Amino acid sequence: MRPLELAAAATRPGGRTVAATGSDDPSPNGPEKSHVGPLDTVVLALDDAAATEPLAALLGTVPDGARVLVLLPCAVVEIPVGRLVDTAVRGASSVAAVVPVDDRSHPVALLLERSRSAPSVTWLPSRGFVDLDADQSRRLAAELVLGGATARAQAMADAARIEVLRRRAVAAEADVARLTEVAARLRDAAERLRTSRSYEVGQALAEVRKAPFSGAVKLPGRLRRAGRPASGR
Amino acid sequence: MTDPEVLGVDEALEFWDKRHKSQGELRSGGDLSYDHAANEVFYALRLGRLIDILGLAESPPWQRHLLDAGCGKGFFARGMGRFGHRVDGIDASPHAVEECTTLGGVNETYAVSTLSRWAPGHLYDAVYCVDVAFHIMDDDEWAASMANLASLVRLGGMLLVADHGADEDKVWGTYQKTRASSRYDRLFAQHGLARRAEFEPYGFRDTPAGFHVFAKDA
């Protein structure tokens, strides 16, 4: 999904998709820059995911109920969880979702919702978290949403890396088996050559050429040996 | 503006990398006024205090994930790793981190980073910073470092920072500046951290240093 499609999907009925002041969205028919209402969704693209000052400033100005779609220039595993959770909680905002988006420079989007009252996180009590105040609920939900997303992404990245390594290992084992077979064939061929009669004769003649006297003395014996059957050696 | 009598941010980074290269395992990040034997005891004592405060890995029903912020040559990170905790160690000195990586165990990972710039994709059950904060001379860098460490603690987690327990700022030389306890209280409160216990002095010889212990409540 493209960032603006996601922003439109996140915008409540009657609300608009607007650009954060200072955001410079070059896309055609991009979000307009105007006053933000409580039903609107504001789109903010960060230049550095860990430099959250523009997000903190924005959260300080949007009204309760407004949503903020933060486009991050990093992969899910690289999301700076601490900075973003802290900025969201300090800006009285809940982290609703982390979504991969179809955008090269900003491949991840974070959907926040500004609300002074305690967020309604229905699944927190079921996990044993009760009697939390608004900030604690916001922080815990944000930690679980963001931390969970990065942990899952990391697990998937690890699994993909393991699969690549496993395939390399299988390929390497196949190479080893093939080369072992080639080596065995070459060893056999070498052995056959070493024990062949023509090899003995050739060696004997080469020695005669190199050292005519001692070679000639050894020549009869060598020729006798060459005359024996190979299996008898 | 930085006081010309004290080390600037870049000068401090260079100073510590050189010191880690030139000094032995303990004195490089330890107290230069102590000899190796005294530093050995001082390191062991602080590791013991950390274990006292953070607990053993068996204490909770899961392995704790810790950040050693400014790990130097990794004495405390290796110690906490040996006690079963999972530890990330960061330090601005490439030389120190290289040594950590060589000596480190299976429970530890190390990276070169300043305290203010470390932004991993996860939070920590506890962050500890042993005798590093008072070597950050630049106040803006100190505040950015402490704020960043505070943001890395999960709800219910702990932050330990070593400094002096006095409530005044004091410059001790070109590379040491202690901050008032109330500055830590104010800064960390903005990040949902409250003091969990009174200042915990090391109690070694006459050092006034010790741990400020905070927990994230909101």
Question: Would you spell out the secondary-structure blueprint of this structure?
Answer:
The complex is a heterodimer of chains A (233) and B (218).
Chain A: H1 3-10, E1 17-19, E2 41-45, H2 53-59, E3 67-72, H3 81-90, E4 93-100, E5 108-114, H4 123-126, H5 134-194, H6 197-210, H7 212-227
Parallel strand pairs in A: 1-2, 2-3
Antiparallel strand pairs in A: 3-5, 4-5
Helix pairs in contact in A: 3-5, 6-7
Chain B: H1 9-22, H2 36-54, E1 65-69, H3 75-82, E2 86-91, H4 94-103, E3 108-112, E4 124-129, H5 139-151, E5 153-164, E6 170-173, E7 176-178, H6 181-189, E8 193-195, E9 200-201, E10 209-216
Parallel strand pairs in B: 1-2, 1-4, 2-3, 4-5
Antiparallel strand pairs in B: 5-10, 6-7, 8-10, 9-10
Describe the 3D structure.
The complex is a heterodimer of chains A (233) and B (218). Chain A contains seven helices and five strands. By secondary structure, chain A is an alpha/beta fold. A five-stranded mixed β-sheet of chain A has the order 1-2-3-5-4. In chain A, helix 3 (81-90) runs antiparallel to helix 5 and helix 6 (197-210) runs antiparallel to helix 7 (212-227). The longest helix of chain A has 61 residues, at 134-194. The radius of gyration of chain A is 37 Å and the shape is rod-shaped. Chain A starts with a helix and ends in a 6-residue tail after the last helix. The model of chain A has no long low-confidence stretch (mean pLDDT 86). With 218 residues, chain B is of the alpha/beta class. Chain B is 33% helix and 25% strand. Chain B has six helices and ten strands, in the order ααβαβαββαβββαβββ. In chain B, helix 2 (36-54) crosses helix 3. The N and C termini of chain B lie far apart (33 Å). The chains are: A alpha/beta (233), B alpha/beta (218). The A-B interface holds A 49-50, 76-83, 85-86, 89-90, 133, 135-136, 139-140, 143, 147, 150-151, 153-154 and B 117, 119-123, 148, 150-155, 190-192, 216-218.
